[in-house]
Amino acid sequence: MKKVALFILSGMSIQVSAQQLPTEAKDVIKSIYTEALGEQQGYKWLHHICTEIGPRPSGSDAANQAAEYTKQMMLDAGADTAWLQPVEVPKWHRGAEWSKAFAGGESVALPTTALGGSVPTPKEGIRAAVVEVGSFEELEALGKEGLEGKIVFYNTYMDHSLISTFNAYGGAVKYRWAGAMEAGKYGAVATVMRSVTLLRDDLPHTGAMSYGESEVKIPTAAISWLAADKLEKMLGDGLVELELFLDCGVQGTAINYNMIADFKGAEKPEEIMLVGGHIDSWDLGQGAQDDGAGCAHAMQVPNLLKKVGYKNNRTIRVVLWANEEFGLDGAKEYARWAKSEGVHHWVAMESDAGGDVPRGFGISADDIRLEQVRTYKELLSPYGLHVFAKGGGGADLGPLRGYDDFFIGYRPESQRYFDFHHSARDNINAIHPRSLEMGAASMSALFYLLDHLE
Ligand SMILES: [Zn+2]
Description:
This protein has helices spanning 25-39, 41-53, 61-76, 136-147, 165-184, 225-237, 288-307, 329-341, 367-374, 377-380, 417-420, 433-450, and strands at residues 2-9, 12-18, 81-103, 106-110, 112-114, 126-133, 151-154, 190-194, 220-223, 241-263, 268-278, 314-321, 344-350, 358-364, 387-390, 407-412. By secondary structure, the protein is an alpha/beta fold. The strands form two sheets. Strands 3, 4, 5, 6, 7, 8, 9, 10, 11, 12, 13, 14, 15 and 16 form a 14-stranded mixed sheet that branches. Strands 1-2 form a two-stranded antiparallel ribbon. Helix 1 (25-39) packs antiparallel against helix 12 (433-450). It starts with a strand and ends with a helix.
């Protein structure tokens, strides 16, 4: 054991022992990047998933085609086993959808999309006066008197002054999730919201919503950023009515699948190094950034390590989860099964933040493990990896927390991620092959290093 770092923890000095890395480690890492950028296999897989299969919403046949395809690709890449784990999911339906604002004899069509889980409007649509709010506090202040029979317009924003776009998303998404539930309490007949995005364009962005335990279920939709600007201006000039039509809803359940592929380890096959993304997507785009990119990343990890001739000590397991977007059903089912089988995930890494250029990793582990991972910074920083933050993982690893204890979330550059997120813009053109492959190589290089750690 070589002592590679010394650091101070709560006044006590701890020596972090990292593994003795093979002398060729630097060269192996370089060859991983060379292979990824040269062959671009991850991009080829992603291109097929996006353009030949397409959107993969909860309950869709396309989600199952993608599971079948990726299973075959993993077997072709040399997986020892690959199988599909059935998962019961809600079957989401989206048909026609539109809205129109009326004021002073003028009418304006607004690009509109139902939020995931919304009930439909009546066949004749809903027409009512619009009330604008900028927060739940404003909604509450208006109360039943101000909201009954009205359509609530949530003119709410991601806080674009924040550096982390994921933090900005976290602050705004509550209006998407609970906006209809809250407005319904005061007798509103529908809600529309400014799309949760940072791009000022004319595409609406969908995403999951919930009625919670509420008996009252009112239709709810997002309108594009520019449509929200128009509606805001019209409301500033006086009374506005909105007509909303949504043909959508949950139509029972269906079976989708988690794809699980194992590349058996030579020394410690029972220690699993899990790497995954989610195979489902929303239905407006091809789910390239969210989360086809994460699937391609995960599939590339064992593939790239094999291509450069590395024989893994631990078992590398690729998991592509079903239905993350609309209830995390795949992640819950995988965790239930893994716990019942007593599977030990030595580490679990998720990629669900898009396919832009790599920045680093978020790491959830005890302090010693965290510092051990941070010793890799020197080897990985030439490839643009400088974030080795405390705390990380992703939504699909959530159900394993408390059972296992070492989680990593891959962190690519994210300033433009929400331009694409859950909209028609999230298609293969949103992905640059080199950025995607740099990400795949980064995750593979980290797994290569981790596989040497005791
Ligand atoms: Zn996602």
